[in-house]
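Quick bug: DUF1573 domain-containing protein output formatted oddly.
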Amino acid sequence: MKKLIYVIVIFFICSCEDSERKKMAQVVSYWQSREIIFPKDTSFVSYSRKYNERKVHLQKGKYAILSYIDSTGCMSCKLELPKWSEFIYVVDSISNGSVPFVFVFQSNKKKDLIHFLKKTGFDYPVYIDEHSSFDRLNRFPKEMQLQTFLLDSNSHVTAIGNPIHNSNVKELYLSIIQGKEVVSNTKNKAIETKVKVDKASVFLGDFAWQKEQKTIFVLTNIGDKPLVIEDVNTSCGCVSVGYSKEPVPSGKDIKLEVGYKADNPEYFDKTITVFCNAKFSPIQLRITGNAR
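Here's what came back:
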């Protein structure tokens, strides 16, 4: 068990600063093998365009994936249902559909949330936690990236981390589900390079919320090996990122073209996470602003 905890820490937080790494390691260690407690009145429901509402009996399997998401604010940003649908498809394809997904959405606007689920056609088991009873029983981590769990057949935590935000966590989940040996994803030093970022954050100012905003981050390869962008994730579905998939030679740079389209007026603070073969990968970038 200690070896698995160590592997999860390496997969998930190998690039954090020392203080953050220590904090994350403590959280991961605390949750490893803990049992997720379900409230007595827990009833999972599937909402879709075809059915108004239907209760779902959760099948029992070797593994299950549970994600607790606070949907307060921009629902499409917080829930990121298209990304979850893609990941569910991948898991179903390797497990013959034997791994159930359980979504617990914390929201005090149940009607709005149900309308959103029907509109998007998200036909998976959902429990709407109007009174935070699920959270009170389990005291989930405050960090969004630590609110998803791979559970065993007895609802004990096997792994922790959000697979749609972190490609390393995604590979970890898939490896465990397939029964493969789990090894740390430390990079081969021979292909590691160094990266300089022109800026870590951009303030997009005040603007009309209907108007899309764009900015550019430049990553320069200052090492002696080619820079390879492995994946780019965003904290919100309203943020898009375009970039070249070609390796970046030493001394050259790559532009990340970032777009932000608000769903409604809001002050926003969004992150872009870049996974690459740089020493301190993943690299976190941020955009902020006020969509009026």
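Actually, after a second look the formatting is fine. The mean pLDDT is 83. Closing.
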